[in-house]
Automatic annotation (TrEMBL), chains A, B:
InterPro entries in UniProt: GAF-like_dom_sf, HTH_MetabolicPath_Reg, Tscrpt_reg_IclR_C, Tscrpt_reg_IclR_N, WH-like_DNA-bd_sf, WH_DNA-bd_sf
UniProt protein name: Transcriptional regulator
GO biological process assignments: negative regulation of DNA-templated transcription
Annotated keywords: DNA-binding, Transcription, Transcription regulation
Organism classification: Bacteria, Bacillati, Actinomycetota, Actinomycetes, Pseudonocardiales
Originating organism: Saccharomonospora marina XMU15
Limits of the HTH iclR-type domain: 10-71
Domain of life where this protein originates: Bacteria
Domain IclR-ED positions: 72-251
Amino acid sequence: MGNGAGADTRSVTAKVLAMLEAFTPATPDLSLSELARRAGVSLPTAHRRAAELVRWGALERGTDGRYRIGLRLWEVASLAPRGLALRDVAMPFLEDLYEVTHENVQLAVREGLELVFVERIAGRYAVPVLTRVGGRFALHATGVGLVLLAHAPTEVQQQALTSPLHAYTPKTITDPDRLREVLAAVRRGGYAVSDGQVTLDALSVAAPIRGRNDEVVAAVSLVVRAGTAEPMNLVPLVQAAGRGISRMLQPRFAG
Amino acid sequence: MGNGAGADTRSVTAKVLAMLEAFTPATPDLSLSELARRAGVSLPTAHRRAAELVRWGALERGTDGRYRIGLRLWEVASLAPRGLALRDVAMPFLEDLYEVTHENVQLAVREGLELVFVERIAGRYAVPVLTRVGGRFALHATGVGLVLLAHAPTEVQQQALTSPLHAYTPKTITDPDRLREVLAAVRRGGYAVSDGQVTLDALSVAAPIRGRNDEVVAAVSLVVRAGTAEPMNLVPLVQAAGRGISRMLQPRFAG
C-alpha cells in the first residue's frame, strides 16, 4: 500500500483513522512522508487530508514541519467513558491511596487481550514502573492485568491462555494451567498480587472495580518495591479503594 | 443539512470529524439518529460510518444501543504533546503542590480564545471549582487564563479584548482597558491572581510554564477558598512549580 500499486479498497473513514493510528508512543511526531507511508496513502492524499485534520485540530503541525496529535482530538477523546470519565470518578480514591502510601497507584481497563492504563500516580521516589497513561500492557503479568483477565468473558480468557505468554522476568507466569489457577484465586480472593512478574523489583497488589451491572470494568493497584511490604497488608487498602470507586459508578451516584 | 436537501460539499474527512465532534460534555452519549442529526448526515450514512468507527474503536456502543467515544480514540489522543504528554511531565510538580496545600491544582493550555484544562487535582475538601479535565473556559476570568492571555500573540490578545467579556461574578474584569492593565501586570510580575472572578468564593494564583523557545506554553494554578490565604504567600509556591515544569520541558530534559 502507499506505492500506488494495487487498488486500495479501504473506505475514506478507514483511511482517515489510519492517519491517526500512524502516531504511536514510539513515533509521536511524523513528517508528511512518514505519515503517508504509515497510513498507506499517496503523498498528495496525505497532504490534503493532513491539512483538513490540522484545520479541525485532530493534528497539529510544529514549527519543525512535523505532525503531532492535536489538542482538539484529545478534548473530544476526553469524553470516553472508560478514559477520563472513569478517571475523574476514581481520582479522589487514587489520591488517597497515594497520600497514605506515597507509592505508585494505577488505574486500568481491559481492551481486547491487553490493558490500557487510564491513570497513574507515580511517587517521585517510588519503584520505577514500565507504564504510561494511555499505554498498553499484556494482561498476564501485572496485578491490574490479572484482575481484569480473571473477570474477562470466558472467550477472552480462552484466547489469552492459548496465546504465547511473554516472560517479562523469570517470575512471570507463562504456564497456562498455572495461570488458570491464579485467575481462579483472584476471583475467590477479590485481589491479585504480581510479585516480580513485570520487573523483579516491583510488587503490585490490585483489586477489581465494578460497574452498573456488578461486572468488573476496571482495576486499581498499588505498586511498591518488592520486599518492602507484606502484600497482605496492602490488600485491604487497595480493595477499599476499589469498592469506593465501584460505589461511585453505581446508578445512584453516576452522572 | 442531513435532510437530503442541498448538496453537502464537505469532504468525507470533515464528515468523519463531524461524527466525533457530535459528542460534547453535555451529550457524551448519543443514539444513532441524534448522531446523524448532529453530524449533518443521513441515517444510513451515519449507520455505516458509526459501524466503521466502532470497529476501529473510535466509538463504543453500549448495551443501551447508544454511542460513546471509544477508548481507542483516547489512547491515540493521549499522544497529543499538549495533552497527556505535558501532563506527564507536570504531574510530579502538581502532586507536590497538592500535597503541601491540599487545595485545587490546575494545569491549562490556550486553544484559540479559550483555555483547556489538561489536568486538575481537586482536594476533597477544597473549594469547588467549575472545571473538568478536557473542559474549556474563557481566558479573561481564571488565573491560568490571565497568564495564558498575557503571554498570547498580540492578535489573540486584540481579539480577546474586543470580544464580549462575560461577567461570571461582579468581580470579573469586563472592561478591556482594565484587563489590558492587568495583563501587563501579569507579564511584569510573572504571576496572575484571580480573586472571586470566576466564583465569588474562589481565589486562584497562577504562573506561566515556558517551553523550548522560552515561550509560554501552559499555566499552573492553585485555587483556594477566598479569604483563607494571602495571595502573595501562594505566589512563590506556584511560581516554583511553574519553573520546575518549564525546566523539564527544556531540550536537555525533553524526550
